[in-house]
Structure to design on (705 residues):
């Protein structure tokens, strides 16, 4: 277990004219025992960042420390971290037992009997004891995933690094493993860096989320922080599903004029002072259908069961709204909507920086309010199932 | 019968016919060599009465082959020259004098050693070309591939000079060393090793493996079938080498192809003995192939189909 700190880490690929900047001067501290999710669109540099932490890539400049130990120049095998890969990367020629024991065999001087014991403990913890004699190709996706996890856990590393470990599973198994993974991480209390492109997964799993784009770190914070108080339009757009509606509006004193008949009087004009245009953002869930308001042309209605997704046009602009399931406007019809100013987002049209974010009185959780990990013991007794599980884990991991 | 099923049947008939034709054209000459080795020379060379049934002269022909002065095809016990007194037993320790290697043993020894060493070298080089980045990687790889087009005939003189300079004339190493870095082998291994997922190697790196352990604990075991296929290719290559061994080896060390060549005399071609020698020379290859057959077929096909 340890704190992982990145000091202005930069990673370039290639040289000369073909140089590609994958990670641009990232400063990031991952706390001891924290579950940090690196999230961003494809090619944003999140996986490269993870690989730099793992030691699979050399950094071009900057430093990485685990606790007080500078690991920048160390190779992967000297860093004492374990990684779970997207495609699991199980050794195809070894059975599960040897897959699990391989790391211990190479990196420790433990006798074979001791390794075997640990393999069995970890297998029991993950519920894969009966698979120990099988080859990876005989396992289902979920079982392979568990073996990959087990291979990381058994090493008792300083940190877990996970590169989209759930993306090859079907939706149901994915959400099940998501919970399992979180429980496991909380119980083992090992610093974890988890990479995903799926913002839902990021928000659900991370103690904190680090949003990346084009090689730069945009924002680090809890799920609520990045959702309610994004630093810029990119983060606002990336976090939240369906995505926030953003469009251009002209500023005329306190009045904003947008596409279609969008027009709104700001009660507070500070954010837009001195601007002639502004980017306006409204989250789909903040759109309220009313009898008299701004007009939307209905395109498609997607019933989700508990709510309906309304895809509509605002002037020339596409817009999405999450509405009550009893409300079923038909395609071709028009509806009117309104919104609270507190829920309105405003972004600088040039830099994309946030001028105003959600201020509806709800105080988002902050990093300091992350549940204390000593609380693990207090939660052990809450459920009959987890209780017995925890005991096993405590025994096997120590 | 419906039109479709009939067309299918015709197609199947043609397919099997074609395969049969291939099998017959391959096997008939082999069979004929075997039959000829069991007949008197006059019998199988007869134009009026061609024979396709084995006769009973195999041992006679074999004896004739063994009795030849200029070729030693199969090894034989030599004069015992040195002894160690071990009490009641006299023990010959000068094995090489005791057992005079014939061409068959020479060939098996040379091809065996060559196959093992070359497998090692080709798989290492293939691994490096497939999985590492280094300066001038592409040019070096293409240079190695380019050597494929050099015929051995062209290399005989320079190689002979080289071998005599380093004192390896009339040594088995002279016919092993020059082809150790087999371009075809390197190419095949590189192609196959590219199919090893990078994540697999990285995963092993994270698990604490050194670069050499990646090679022999991960890459080699996953490449088992390709290695089996390549070992047959390499073994056959060495087994069939003719010109260079003829030039660089002395009579006592001849390999099979060179030894067989000695049966073609100035006045006479000893067909009966050639047939016996050819039959015998097929046996080790046959055994090796039986051994590796299963791996060989899957190795040749490996990577051709996405699973």
């Amino acid at each position: 277990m340890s704190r992982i700190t990145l000091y202005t880490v930069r990673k370039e690929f290639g040289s000369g004219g073909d140089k590609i900047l994958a990670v641009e001067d990232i400063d990031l501290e991952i706390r001891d025992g924290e579950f940090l999710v690196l999230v961003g669109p494809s090619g944003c540099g999140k996986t490269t960042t993870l690989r730099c932490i793992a030691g699979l890539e050399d950094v071009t400049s900057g430093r990485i420390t685990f606790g007080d130990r500078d690991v920048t120049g160390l190779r992967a095998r000297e860093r004492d971290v374990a990684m779970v890969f997207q495609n699991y990367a199980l050794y195809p020629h070894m059975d599960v037992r040897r897959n699990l024991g391989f790391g211990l065999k190479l990196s420790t001087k433990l006798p074979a009997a001791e390794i075997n014991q640990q393999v069995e403990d970890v297998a029991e913890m993950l519920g894969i004891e009966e698979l120990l004699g099988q080859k990876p190709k005989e396992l289902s996706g979920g079982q392979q995933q568990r073996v990959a996890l087990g291979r990381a856990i058994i090493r008792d590393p300083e940190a877990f690094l996970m590169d989209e470990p759930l993306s090859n599973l079907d939706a149901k198994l994915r959400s099940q493993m998501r919970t399992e993974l979180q429980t496991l991480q909380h119980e083992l209390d090992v610093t974890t860096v988890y990479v995903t492109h799926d913002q839902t997964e990021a928000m659900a799993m991370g103690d904190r989320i680090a949003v990346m784009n084009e090689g730069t770190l945009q924002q680090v914070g809890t799920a609520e922080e990045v959702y309610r108080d994004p630093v810029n339009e990119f983060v606002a757009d990336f976090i939240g599903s369906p995505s926030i509606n953003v469009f251009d509006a002209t500023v005329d004193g306190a009045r904003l004029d947008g596409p279609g008949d969008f027009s709104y009087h700001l009660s507070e004009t500070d954010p837009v002072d001195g601007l002639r245009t502004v980017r306006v953002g409204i989250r789909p869930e903040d759109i309220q259908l009313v009898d008299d308001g701004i007009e939307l042309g209905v395109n498609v209605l997607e019933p989700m069961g508990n709510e309906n997704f309304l895809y509509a046009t605002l002037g020339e602009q596409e817009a999405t709204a999450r509405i009550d399931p009893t409300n079923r406007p038909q395609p071709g019809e028009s509806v009117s909507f309104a919104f609270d100013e507190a829920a309105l987002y405003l972004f600088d049209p040039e830099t994309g920086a946030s001028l105003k974010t959600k201020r509806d009185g709800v105080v988002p959780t902050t990093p300091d309010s992350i549940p204390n990990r000593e609380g693990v013991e207090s939660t052990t007794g809450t459920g009959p199932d987890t209780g017995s599980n925890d005991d096993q884990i405590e025994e096997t991991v120590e | 019968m419906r039109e479709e099923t009939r067309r299918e049947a015709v197609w199947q008939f043609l397919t099997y016919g074609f395969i049969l034709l291939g099998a017959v054209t391959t096997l008939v000459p082999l069979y004929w060599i075997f039959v000829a080795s069991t007949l008197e020379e006059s019998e199988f060379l007869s134009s009026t009465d061609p024979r396709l049934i084995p006769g009973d002269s195999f041992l006679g022909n074999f004896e004739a082959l063994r009795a030849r002065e200029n070729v030693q095809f199969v090894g034989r016990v030599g004069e015992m020259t040195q002894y160690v007194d071990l009490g009641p037993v006299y023990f010959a320790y000068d094995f090489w004098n005791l057992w005079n290697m014939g061409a068959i043993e020479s060939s098996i020894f040379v091809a065996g050693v060559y196959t093992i060493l070359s497998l090692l070298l080709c798989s290492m080089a293939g691994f490096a070309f497939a999985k590492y980045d280094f300066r001038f990687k592409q040019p070096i790889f293409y240079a190695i591939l380019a050597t494929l087009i050099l015929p051995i005939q062209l290399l005989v003189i320079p190689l002979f000079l080289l071998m005599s300079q380093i004192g390896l004339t009339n040594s088995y190493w002279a016919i092993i060393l020059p082809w150790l870095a087999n371009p075809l082998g390197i190419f095949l291994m590189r192609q196959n090793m590219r199919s090893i997922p990078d994540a697999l190697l990285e995963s092993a790196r994270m698990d604490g493996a050194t670069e050499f352990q990646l090679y022999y604990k991960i890459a080699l075991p996953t490449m088992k079938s390709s290695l089996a296929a390549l070992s047959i290719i390499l073994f056959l290559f060495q087994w069939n080498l003719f010109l260079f061994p003829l030039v660089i080896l002395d009579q006592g060390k001849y390999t099979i192809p060179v030894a067989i060549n000695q049966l073609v005399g100035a006045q006479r071609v000893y067909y009966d003995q050639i047939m016996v020698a050819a039959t015998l020379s097929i046996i080790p290859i046959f055994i090796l192939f039986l051994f590796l057959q299963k791996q060989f077929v899957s190795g040749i096909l490996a990577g051709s189909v996405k699973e």
About this structure: Chain B touches chain A through 17 residues (CB under 8 Å). The first strand of chain B starts at residue 76 and ends at 77. Chain B has two domains: 3-67, 101-301.
